[in-house]
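User: Okay, second chain of the day. Same drill as before: sequence in, structure tokens out.
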Amino acid sequence: MVPWTWRFEKADGTEVSPSVEPDEFSTQGDAESWLGEYWKELLEGGVEQVRLFEDTTEIYGPMSLSEAHTA
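Assistant: Same drill. Structure tokens below.
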């Protein structure tokens, strides 16, 4: 099974360590559900955007967490 993972970044694309450490996810839905639960904590911890990967393939991103905050 191929893992789904998030890459956590500043707005300029610099990778940062998340304030909440995720596991590897077995499905895209699990990864997205986890982000839905923790995006506020990640944003408060300095993560400004994320990218979703299936193994080493980028599926989408960057996705701003700030836009989620104002939505």
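The mean pLDDT is 92.

User: Thanks, on to the next one.
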